Structure formats: C-alpha cells, structure tokens
Automatic annotation (TrEMBL):
Residues 110-416 form the Aminotransferase class V domain. Gene3D superfamilies: Aspartate Aminotransferase, domain 1, Type I PLP-dependent aspartate aminotransferase-like (Major domain). It catalyses: (sulfur carrier)-H + L-cysteine = (sulfur carrier)-SH + L-alanine. InterPro entries: Aminotrans_V_dom, Aminotrans_V_PyrdxlP_BS, PyrdxlP-dep_Trfase, PyrdxlP-dep_Trfase_major, PyrdxlP-dep_Trfase_small. Its cofactor is pyridoxal 5'-phosphate. It holds the Pfam family Aminotran_5. GO terms for molecular function: cysteine desulfurase activity; transaminase activity. Keywords: Aminotransferase, Pyridoxal phosphate, Transferase. Signal peptide: none annotated. Belongs to the class-V pyridoxal-phosphate-dependent aminotransferase family. Csd subfamily. It comes from Saccharothrix syringae. This is Aminotransferase class V-fold PLP-dependent enzyme.
Length: 451
C-alpha cells in the first residue's frame, strides 16, 4: 500500500469521480476496484525486477492492463508501461512536494532537450528540428495554421484524412481564406495499389499547390500510403520550382509511428507530425512535429515558446533566433511529468527493439487480416499487402452497427476494439506489443460468432 493512501477514508471520498460508477458511451460499466490496484502495486514491483525485453509475456507484464481483457486498441490512447508510470510518478511527486526542485518548471529547458534528443535518436533526425507538442492534433493545428501561403496558393489534401487534419485546414481557410482542395485516392481500400495512390496525387498536384496534407496510415481503412514514393513524386515536381513555390509534404504519421521500422528522416517528408501516446505507448499528452530546416523556414510560430531565445528576444526587442524545434514548441507550463517521462518510453521501446516490435505487430496484423478475410459476413477494408498497411486493421460486419460490434466484443468476449469516428465509420482493431497471436485467434473467433 502506498504511503499517501489513507485507509480510514472510503474510496469515494478519495476519488470523487472514480468512486462513482463510470458509464462509458459503449454502455459498459466499469467499477473502480481498490483491491485490484493494490494487487497491481505488488505486481509492478515484481514484474519490473524480472523484465526481459526479449520475452513477449514479460513485455505484456510491464502493463497494468486488466489481465482478463485483450487490448486491440493501440490506435487510441496508450496504457503506460511500468517504467513510464514510474518516471511520471517520480516527477509528479517531485513537483507536488517541492516545485522549486524543478525550478518551478524551468527545468523543462533541460528535460525538453532530453525528450528532443530521444525523439531525434529514434527518428534519425536532429534534436533542434523537433518541436514538442501535446498531441498529433496540436501539431497539425500548428503546422496548418502557420504555413506561409500567398493569395492563390493551395493546400492539397484528401478525403481519407482524420478529423484533426480536416479541421486544422478548415480553421485555416476560415481565418484567412487559404485554399484547400480535397481529392479521393481510392474507392476500394482493400484493392488499392501503390501506383494508383501515387498517380492520383501526380494528377492532382497543380501549379498553385504549395503543400500536401496527407496521412501515413488512414484511420478509417488502414491503408498505408507509400510515403517514400510520394516524396519522390514531390521531389520531381519541385525540381524546377523556386524555393518558396516548392510543395511541402506534410504527414500525420501517428498511426504508423511506433509500428513501422523506419527512420522518419528516411521517409523524405518535410513535416512529420505525430503523437507519442498511441502505438509507442508513450506518456499520454505527448507528441512532436519534426520539420526539415527548409520546411521550418516556411512556417510561422503560433504559440509563444518558453525558450531562451524567445525570452532574450523579449528583453532585447529583437526577433528570437534559435533552433526551429525550440522556437516552435508551444510554451507555458505543461503537464511536465508526462513530457519529461517521454525519453523513458523511447528507451523501453528501443530495449525491446524497433525491428522486433514491427515484426510482432505486422505478423499479428497479417494473421488477423487472414482470419477476417475468411469470414463471409465480414468486409475487410485494409489491404493485405504489407507495404500498403501497418498495424491498424479495419473492417465492417454485415448487418451490424459498428458500435454494436465493439460492445459485443467487449462485453461478451472481453476484447477492447474501437469504432472509427469518420462519417463512413468502421470497426478498428490494433494488434500490438500488448496482444498475442493467441488473442488474435480469439478475436477472429469472436468476430466469427457475431451474427
Ligand atoms: C490519423 C489520426 N491522426 C490524429 C489522431 C489524433 O491523435 P492525437 O490524440 O495525438 O491528437 C488520430 C486518432 O486519434 C488519428 O487516427
């Protein structure tokens, strides 16, 4: 039992919200379980001391996820593995006990640098090109709001992107009339080819196109764009353009980040925008924008950074000069304990191995797709091809609403899945490092039994 727990107070007094029943939109009722959290504490200590990053059971043991559930929801909001939980708790205790220990948050200058360094190591980029954010959505908002566009310039995007890209561009257009054109890359996601995707973009890029706003892995189909081939196309288009007329390739990478075994630097994009609180299992409320130097040079910052150059600029009345990642990181005090724990999430991931994780996720995704494809009442939306899909698997079940599917998976089979929030919604399934091939079989059997 932890020192700060007072056994004389009832759980509802200690947790005014969690002490009551929490009704999720799925209609499923979760009850807070004090005994379970005490069991958890013992398990945390035990599993940390025996953690073997090369043993998948041991990896799964690093999560406090309730053991009787199978979690096929890595595309949503991460559970923190124990090392990340511990880092957060220790930073939080420090801040709660004596904020001066962290210079009231000024220590963020040092800890944010460590977070940037961890991101740069993992992505093969440079720390000064990395701006820290709270989410993919924040990064998309900053990029699409800040892009320097002249009258007549357009942003080309697609009908397959997530709400956050759509809304960031809508807000930009509403603010200054920026032109946004939206195209469709495929009608049948399961049958798409890399050539088709690149050709549709080739045909759509026009003389006035200054930015492509794309998504690496589409959250409503699981289609993974061949980003390297798209980057090659953009390089071709840009070859005879002046610097300020070049097309910038901006990518929401969140549904591939932490799955694909690739350096972001090798993708050939200009801006890579992601959260680190999905497939990477990083701290909730963390993410980043990586930009190439020439791309940052075409972006205006929106939110003041809390950085040395910015404060110096305030004192000297000169425009701040410094690394773009630093100047584009939104300032103000943050939920520092989560941001500061980010390097631990990368260390955890790297200890297991990026290539091993990619293989583990992709093998399960292939197994899941094969199983679902064999069910006559299921329509698999995600391409079977490995180079056109990642960990996310999307499908629809004949005659059944998507929320009914996920409710029944949860309540009858103890399987956590998701419903996409797109208008033409689908069921989303995300095998990951917290699921197993046996659980994939269980999931396929569960979907087979839905009639
Ligand atoms: C493609 C895509 N982009 C962005 C988001 C939002 O991510 P975040 O919570 O990091 O803003 C999601 C889903 O939550 C998504 O599927």
């Amino acid at each position: 039992m932890s020192a700060d727990r007072d056994p004389t107070r009832s759980s509802s007094e200690k947790h005014p919200i969690m002490g009551k029943r929490t009704l999720l939109s799925t209609g499923h009722v979760f009850l807070p379980d004090e005994a379970a959290s005490e069991r958890d504490e013992a398990r945390v200590a035990e599993s940390l001391s025996t953690f073997d990053p090369h043993d998948w059971d041991s990896v799964r043991g690093q999560f406090s996820l309730a053991g009787e559930y199978a979690y096929f929801a890595a595309f949503m909001l991460a559970s923190h593995p124990i090392p990340v939980q511990n880092a957060i708790v220790s930073f939080r205790h420090g801040l709660d006990n004596f904020p001066e220990r962290f210079q009231m948050g000024v220590a963020d200058l040092e800890h944010a640098t460590r977070a940037r360094e961890a991101i740069a190591r993992y992505t093969g980029t440079a720390p000064g090109q990395v701006a820290l954010t709270d989410s993919t959505t924040m990064g998309l908002g900053l990029v699409y709001r800040g892009l320097r566009l002249r009258p007549g310039d357009e942003v080309l995007t697609t009908t397959h992107d997530f709400f956050s890209t759509f809304e960031a561009l809508r807000l930009r257009a509403a603010a200054d009339g920026a032109e946004v054109r939206r195209i469709t890359l495929y009608e049948d996601p399961a049958a798409v080819s890399a050539d088709q995707l690149v050709d549709r973009l080739r045909q759509a890029i026009g003389d006035r196109t200054r930015a492509l706003a794309l998504t690496w892995v589409h959250s409503n189909s699981g289609v993974m764009l061949p980003i390297r081939a798209v980057a090659d196309l953009v390089a071709e288009v840009n070859a005879d353009r002046d610097e300020d007329a070049r097309v910038l390739l901006c990518v929401d990478g969140v549904q591939g980040f932490g799955v694909e075994d690739v350096d972001v630097a090798a993708l050939g994009v200009d801006f890579f925008i992601t959260g680190t609180h999905k497939w990477l299992f990083g701290p909730r409320g963390t993410g980043f924008v990586w930009g190439a130097d020439h791309a940052w040079a075409r972006l205006d910052a929106t939110i003041p950074s809390f950085s040395f150059p910015a404060f110096t600029g305030w004192h000297t009345a000169e425009a701040p000069r410094g690394e773009p990642g630093v100047l584009h990181t939104p300032g103000g005090y943050h939920s520092f304990e989560n941001r500061w724990a980010l390097p631990v999430a990368f260390e955890f991931h790297e200890a297991i191995g990026r290539a091993r994780i990619a293989e583990r996720v992709k093998v399960q995704a292939a197994q899941l797709k094969e199983g679902l494809a064999g069910l006559p009442h299921v329509r698999l939306l995600t391409p079977r091809a490995e180079d056109l899909s990642s960990g996310l698997v999307c499908c629809r079940v004949d005659g059944m609403r998507e929320d009914e599917v996920t409710n029944r998976l949860l309540t009858e089979h103890r399987i956590s899945a998701g419903v996409s929030p797109h208008r033409d919604t689908c069921v989303r399934l995300g095998p990951s490092i917290v699921t197993t091939p046996d659980e994939v079989d269980r999931l396929v059997r569960a979907v087979a039994s839905l009639r």
